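Q: How would the structure tokens look for this protein?
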Amino acid sequence: MKIVVAGAGLVGLSSALLLARDGHQVTVVERDGAAPTDPATAWEEWERRGVNQFRLPHLFASRYRALMQAELPDVMADLIDAGALEWHPLGHVPASLREPGRPGDEDLVAVTGRRVVVESVVARAAEEARGVEIRRGEPIGGLVAGPADASGIPAVGGVRLESGEELPADLVVDAAGRRSPLPSWLEGLRAAPLAEESDDSGFVYYGRHFRSTDGVVPDVPGVLPVQEYGTISLLTLPADNGTWSVVVVTSSEDTVLRGLRDADRWMTVVRSLPGGDAWVAGDPIDDRVMSMTKLEDRIRSVVVDGRPVVAGLLPVGDSWACTNPSVGRGASIGLMHAVALRDLLAGHADDAPSDLASAWDEATRASVTPWYEATVAGDRHRLAEITALLAGEVYAPEDPGFEIGKALICAAGQDPDCLRALLRLAGVQQIPGDALAAEGVFDKAIALGAGWRDAPPLGPTRDELVAMATG
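A: Here is the predicted structure in token form.
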């Protein structure tokens, strides 16, 4: 097939590589004109104005590493050569929980690095790949209508660049990310509106990057890179070449903490948290706190009431669904989605375009929709919990999933089975129900973690936090 991929981000580039290696001819069209530089200099030299989270901290979970190793092993090797870190969470927990040599522990290893560096490596691989053409600085102005099939559904036959040039295609893959203009593209094609649900994710992120002065990266302060401390969360992320990042996550309703935009106040708050001194002991790579807000939880489908609204166009990655980035699932879910697309076309490339759209909707629901739903459910609970804490109340929803999730986190610090279940969940290896279904995990989580509410609070009190954030 002749395929146009809209967007040269990580998901778009990975999709292009997977599809080209399966024999398709792929043209990637990217709005941003700046080409990636060498990974060693990309942080200083490469700007991607179309990606607002380009320089913000990223997490590439164990599912991402496993898929890269299985599907794009040469690119995975390039990532390691460029300084990406293979990070094993079991290397940072008490010895009593490690029990080395357990089957499956190798799947828990993550590969991590700064987004700029990781994307530069993937971009270089795509540029050198046979069957892939990348056109940067070429904004898409709209879709080109293709011949309708017997269904009468509007069909896409390619894209029209803002320059007026048309690129014909058998299939258009929308990998334009969070800012994808898919609804307006469909409107220009006179297609019916797609199905879309969206809401503000409700979180604000305040982050900085650091570089080690001695080559040593600090230990994560808990069993997971993200730790909750009352009304805030701390995200600590090892990265490439002796660098790391630290993010304080708050609710967008918690306006009194907007003082965290100030670097000195931000440093004071991080130092007050367990292990915080070590995480700000390096040399800051940036001289300011980078903040991000007003991100959506959004999910789309080109199938409405069982009928596609358009044929010949398939959304993938953040163009399909995007969520709160602080749990670090976006890259893994996006790569899972790209692999599902490659697999779908391997068996359905000759289908009528409308049938392909329906098959893609089914494949998406089976492969990645459960992860979107689990992430949004967890986010809604966390925001509601923060709201309750701000009001001086105890958050006790009538949802057993919330209670067992908290119990599992508590039990993970005491039991190796619960720890591995939690790491499989956090690493995008298993959804909550499957992680808890492992032999003995549910019972152990209840027995060991039922008293999670009685655990002494860590970090500053709310009054101390406000005092530090307001100066």
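The chain has three domains: 1-200+295-368, 203-292, 396-461.

The chain has 17 helices and 21 strands.

Upvote if useful.
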